[in-house]
Amino acid sequence: MEGGEEMQGAVGLRCTWGVPPRAGTQAKWVRLNVGGTVFLTTRQTLCREQKSFLCRLCQGEDLQSDRDETGAYLIDRDPTYFGPILNFLRHGKLVLDKDMAEEGVLEEAEFYNIGPLIRIIKDRLEEKNYTVTQVPPKHVYRVLQCQEEELTQMVSTMSDGWRFEQLVNIGSSYNYGNEDQTEFLCVVSKELYNSPSGLSSEPSRKAKVRP
């Protein structure tokens, strides 16, 4: 390619050859020996992300990289995770085998400085972690015993997510002076969520219970 020619990348990033490549580096195809596995690709693909290590390497920017007997650039990284890196530069999508760890690809994306890919993987990991921690709530029930004169105050002062469910009249058990005091059983409930650590979250205050 001639100096100054521009290439439009699949992920919307423009790679500009502002400086003529060094002698011997003008071939369209590039061989990369990553951890003993050889990958064949083009300069256009490697330069989809201008600030990446791979783009700088194929442009000959002050990166002293040895070559093997075939002339391929030697890169001492895990070839298992390089495939998704290269494919992302080819078509702008992250495609992983079901058994491949996203954390491993993220580590390589950070090494090669592929900014858009780093953001995609981090977003996926955050979404996955959020989904794991969303445990369905448990319903907790309590039965509170109170007298008729205490009923209104007790229900109105319940807090921390407790709500009224059912009221059961159990008759008159006490006699104060000349008046019978009707006793009630008040059923209340609340949703109890599990924290990421697996421990149930407890309310800071309890529903009011008559001693």
UniProtKB/TrEMBL annotation:
One of its GO terms (biological process) is positive regulation of cilium assembly. InterPro entries: BTB/POZ_dom, SKP1/BTB/POZ_sf, T1-type_BTB. Residues 28-129 form the BTB domain. GO terms for molecular function: cullin family protein binding. One of its GO terms (cellular component) is Cul3-RING ubiquitin ligase complex. It comes from the Eukaryota. This is BTB/POZ domain-containing protein KCTD17.
